[in-house]
Amino acid sequence: MPEECCEVIVTGPDPDWLAGYTRTLVQERLAACGHQSVPIRSVYRWEGAVHDEPEARVALHTRRSLVEEVVTRTAELHPYDVPCVIALPLAGGNPDYLRWVVEETRDPQRAAAAPWV
User: Fold this and answer.
1) What is the Cα–Cα distance from 31 to 53, expressed in whole angstroms?
2) Which terminus of the chain is less hemmed in, N or C, by CB atoms within 10 Å?
3) Would you list the DSSP string of 91-112?
4) Is the CB of residue 3 less than 8 Å from the CB of residue 18?
5) Beta strand 33-46 with 85-89: parallel, antiparallel or unpaired?
6) Model pLDDT, residue 108
7) CA distance 61 to 42
8) What pLDDT is attached to residue 117?
9) What is the CA radius of gyration of the chain?
10) Residue-range definition of the domain harbouring residue 36
11) Quick one: DSSP state of residue 4?
C-alpha cells in the first residue's frame, strides 16, 4: 500500500489561508488529511531579489494518483504565481493508516467514470 500513497508538501502565505486550503482539499477528497507546520521561514530568490519571509507549510497525505489534481487545484486556489507543491513517495508506514488514507481519498478512475462520487 505505501506505493499508492504519498505526502504532498505545500507552502502558503499564512496559517489561516493554509488551513482553509487544506480543508477544501480534504472536503473534495483530494487529501485524507493535512498536518500544518507554522511558522516556517522561507528564503528564496524571486524576480531577481532574495526574499526572507514567514510562511506556513502543510503535509497532505493522499494517493499518488491524485497528485496531478492536487497541483491543478492548488494553482486555482493559491495566491502565489508559482506555489510550492512537491510530492514525496512513502517508503512504508502503519498499514492501517495508509489504508485509511486510500479510503478517505477518491479513486481517480472511479471519479472519471462517475464524477458525482
Assistant:
1) 27
2) C
3) ----HHHHHHHHHHS--HHHHH
4) no
5) unpaired
6) 82
7) 22
8) 45
9) 15
10) 2-113
11) G
C-alpha cell at 85: 507543491
Order of all β-strands in the sheet with 5-12: 33-46, 49-63, 5-12, 85-89
Nearest in space to 59 (alpha carbons), one of 9, 112, 4: 9
Among candidate residues 108, 117, 105, 12, the one with its CA nearest the CA of residue 21: 12
Residue 109 in grid coordinates: 478512475
Record the cell numbers describing residue 2, joined without a space: 505505501
Count of domains for the chain: 1
Give residues with Cβ within 8 angstroms of 63, minimum separation 6.
4, 5, 6, 101, 102, 105, 107, 108
Residue count of the chain, please give it.
Answer: 117
Cβ-contact 3, 32 below 8 angstroms: no
Residue 87: give its domain's CATH number.
Answer: 3.30.70.120
> Minimal CA–CA distance to 89: which of 6, 2, 4, 1?
6
Per-residue pLDDT at 61: 98
